[in-house]
Specification:
Helix content is 33%, strand content 31%. With 213 residues, the protein is of the alpha/beta class. It binds 1-O-pyrophosphono-5-O-phosphono-alpha-D-ribofuranose (PRP). The site of 1-O-pyrophosphono-5-O-phosphono-alpha-D-ribofuranose (PRP) has 10 residues, from strand 9 and helix 6.
Length: 213
C-alpha cells in the first residue's frame, strides 16, 4: 500500500483553488468534488488524504503532524509563527496586511495609539519596530467597526479588494506586508514523505511559474 500524504486544505474559495493545483500535480481525489458535508477525502491509489479545515487552523494541524502538509496564509504564519517548513509561495489568495483608519484620521504621536485587530502579534511587532506606543484591542472579526464606534483609532487587518474599508468610510494609512498562500510542511513529515512532497512542490512551483508568464 502507498504511504498516504495527509493534506490540510483551507475550507472555502481559496481551498478550492488549492485543490485544483494539487489535482493538476497528480494528487487527484475525485470524491472531494461531491457536494456533501464530509470533511475527509482520500484516494488510496494516488496516496493522498485531504481534510477541509478552518483556514486559520491549517498551521495547527501541520505543526502537530495531523497533516503532513497544508496551505496557510502568510498572515497566519506571521501571527502564530508555527514551527513548520514554509516550502512555496503559491501566489494565490493575495492581499495585504494594512493599517486603516477613518478617512482624514491624523495620528497624534503624543498619545497611545489604540489598535483593534485580529492580528495582535503582527500589529505589536510592526509598531514596536517604529517605537510607537500602542494599546492593542484584540477582536475576532468585524474589525472595521472599531474605529467607527471609537473603540480604536486604527485597525490592522487584511485588505483584499478594499471594498469593506470603503463601505465603512475607512482608508488604508500604511501597508505592513503583502500576503499570499503558502505551502507548509510538518518538519518530520517532510523527512519521511520527502519524495511525495518534493514531487508535489515541484509541480506546484511549475504551475506558479507558468501562470506568471
Ligand atoms: C477579511 C478582512 C476584511 C475583508 C477585506 O475578512 O477582515 O474584513 O476580508 O476584504 P476586502 O478588502 O476585499 O473587502 P474575512 O472575510 O477574511 O473574514 P473575517 O470577517 O472573519 O475577518
Amino acid at each position: 500500500m502507498k504511504t498516504m500524504l495527509n493534506v490540510a486544505l483551507p475550507k472555502g474559495r481559496l481551498g478550492e483553488k488549492v485543490y485544483a493545483m494539487f489535482e493538476k500535480a497528480g494528487f487527484e481525489c475525485p470524491s472531494i468534488k461531491e457536494n456533501n458535508r464530509k470533511l475527509i477525502f482520500e484516494n488510496e491509489e494516488v496516496g493522498v488524504r485531504y481534510f477541509w479545515v478552518k483556514p486559520s487552523d491549517v498551521a495547527i494541524y501541520v505543526e502537530r503532524g495531523a497533516a503532513d502538509i497544508g496551505v496557510a496564509g502568510k498572515d497566519i504564519l506571521l501571527e502564530y509563527r508555527p514551527n513548520v517548513y514554509e516550502l512555496l509561495d503559491l501566489d494565490i489568495g493575495k492581499c495585504r496586511m494594512a493599517v486603516a483608519a477613518k478617512a482624514g484620521f491624523r495620528d497624534d504621536p503624543q498619545k497611545t495609539l489604540k489598535v483593534a485587530t485580529k492580528f495582535s502579534n503582527i500589529a505589536a511587532t510592526y509598531y514596536n519596530s517604529q517605537g510607537r506606543d500602542i494599546d492593542i484591542i484584540h477582536l475576532n472579526g468585524s474589525i472595521e467597526i472599531a474605529p467607527i464606534l471609537g473603540l480604536s483609532d486604527v485597525i490592522v487587518d487584511i485588505v483584499e479588494t478594499g471594498t469593506t474599508l470603503k463601505e465603512n468610510n475607512l482608508e488604508v494609512i500604511e501597508t505592513i506586508v503583502p500576503i499570499s498562500a503558502r505551502l507548509i510542511a510538518n518538519k518530520s513529515g517532510f523527512k519521511f514523505k520527502s519524495e511525495q512532497i518534493e514531487l508535489l512542490k515541484n509541480s506546484l512551483a511549475q504551475q506558479v511559474k507558468d501562470k506568471a508568464q
